[in-house]
Amino acid sequence: MLFKKARSRRSSILVSFVAGLGFIGLAVYGWGMPIEKVGSFALISLLLLLGLVLLGGCGAMMLIGIRKIFGPKDL
């Protein structure tokens, strides 16, 4: 059961990745978008995603720190 869940997560990530590549390919081929513009959009998206992940990690670290400071003292 555990391995089935891991496989389904991987397959959904793979499907999302292929769908994203398909959309980028459609933008280049169908709309005549220049490759440079697609590359800049991809870089901006990657930087925004990285920033969100880092912000979430910092928020989690802050919550853990607050919990350690103001949490129960008998532990």
Describe this structure in words.
Keywords: Membrane, Transmembrane, Transmembrane helix. The chain crosses the membrane at residues 12-32, 38-66. It is a single chain. With 75 residues, this protein is mostly helical. It has one domain (2-69). Helix content is 87%, strand content 0%. It has 2 helices and no strands. The protein has helices at 2-30, 35-70. The protein is elongated, with a radius of gyration of 20 Å. The chain starts with a helix and ends in a 5-residue tail after the last helix. The mean pLDDT is 81.
Mean pLDDT: 81
| DSSP, total strands | 0
Q: Which structural class do you get from the secondary structure elements?
A: mainly alpha
Count of runs of 4 or more consecutive helical residues = 2
Order of helices and strands: HH
Amount of helix: over 70%
Overall domain count: 1
| Global shape | elongated
Largest sheet: none
Rounded radius of gyration (Å):
20 Å
Task: Report strand %.
Answer: under 5%
Give the N-terminus to C-terminus distance in angstroms.
35 Å
Runs with pLDDT <50, length 5+? Answer: none
Transmembrane segments: 12-32, 38-66
Keywords: Membrane, Transmembrane, Transmembrane helix
